[in-house]
Amino acid sequence: MTEKKTSYLAPALILICTVAALITMVGVIKCNVAVSLMIVGIITIFLAQATGAKWETISVNIGEAINTVYIGVFIMMLVGMLIGSWMAAGTVPMLMYYGLKWLSPSIFLVATCILCSLMSIMTGTSWGTIGTMGIALIGVAKGLGVNEMYTIGAVVTGALIGDKMSPLSDTTILAPTVSGTDVYKHIVSMLYTTVPAFVISIVMYAILGINHTGSSVVTESYTEIMNTLSANFNMNILSLLPPILVVVLILLKKPSIPTFGIGIFAGGVVAALIQGRGFKEIVGICANGFSVDTGSDIVNSMVNRGGLLNMMSTIAVIIAAALFSGALKSCGVFEMLCDIIKKIAKGRRSVLASSYVLHFLLYALTGSYFVTFSIVGPMMGPIFDEYDIDRRNLSRMLEDTGTTAAPLIPWSTFSVYVAGALGVSSWSYLLYCPLSYLGLITAAIYIVTGFGIFRRDGSMLCSNKAVDKA
């Protein structure tokens, strides 16, 4: 036993030192996240080599980590182009205009959460929802005088709930796949942690909306936004064609990348035919983002967004996180954590609690649930079988401590995307995004009580059935 502990000394020290360095650089000194991850990642590579890892092994591990996120990188690039294209087409400005016209301040936050939930369920993407519907609703919030952080919290909550529950979502498919269960059982199981969080979120947004009850919608800012939008964009119903087309294609289960490509193309066509923009201008908007001086600073801040190049800083964080993740794996950190879990798991609740802590810790280290799902799911699946725990609990745990916990980790791929798309750090709106922490709290309560935790025969741990290995 002593010899085994000694073998864990190097990876344990590396883990503590690198995480401390990362937290200090990002959280205390406020250094750039991508550069911080690169610096710590390079240092970790040297430490891996110092502990005996070969460069060939390190490069393979880094390559595997990058391989798990490359689809997300392409989607992020396409979302940047999509936002620019739909701004040029007048799609997002039109949604802002009619959102201001139809929504009242008192119900706005509740409506925002529900609308983003529905769009994310239909499309299967939280990123696409935030980058299109989310941006439009944040613009509406400015006109209605609703707190921007409240609005971003409602947008993110809705987008994550929809993404988590949608059978079209990559995470909803990946989590049960790597855990060894089916998608239907996975979605039904997630209702146990998602529904309470959704209900509490709606109540929170309703209470926050009470502050706006009776307030006048027609303010000076409201009038300025409405007049400026109508003066700078042709409010033609055909501007809604690109998002309708994208939703239809996704409902038909077409692949995300070609679907977004068609959405960009449709936006470009509408921008040319309805808004009168030239081909070169549209291509430039897709590359650099939409940029126009409308004569109103408020409207400029609402519509001047998007572009592939404006996503590069976010993509840099994702690549840097993959470098750090691959270097940690080469140091034996992941293997050490997995071995510890296998040794301390002596009963059902300890297995559940250990997998919960392990996945959240790995996610906090890597910032990518695509990486951590593929590590923890296959590793813990057989252990869940041994202790007669249905694997739907494992797949749900991956989502609760990964997908919906993303705003808790500032360097997660999700958080840096939101920062790039909306211009705010995750901790700025975290309090108003209850799903991110309520999912973790609810999952922990279920582990302790046994409610919502299923045996392989479908019964819950909290039932009166006599069991061993409790």
Question: Could you explain the architecture of this structure?
Answer:
There is one protein chain. The protein is built from 23 helices and no strands. With 470 residues, it is mainly α.
What percentage of residues falls in helices of 4 or more residues?
over 70%
Overall geometry comes to globular
Strand content: under 5%
Determine the number of helices (DSSP H or I, runs of at least 4 residues): 23
Q: Which structural class should the secondary elements be placed in?
A: mainly alpha
The gyration radius over C-alpha positions equals 23 Å
**In angstroms, what separates the terminal alpha carbons?**
26 Å
User: Would you report the number of β strands?
Assistant: 0
Strand/helix succession:
HHHHHHHHHHHHHHHHHHHHHHH
Question: Assembly type of the shown chains?
Answer: single chain
Largest sheet: none
Summarize it.
The chain is mainly alpha-helical. The protein contains 23 helices and no strands. Helix 4 crosses helix 14 (279-288) and helix 6 runs antiparallel to helix 7 (126-144).
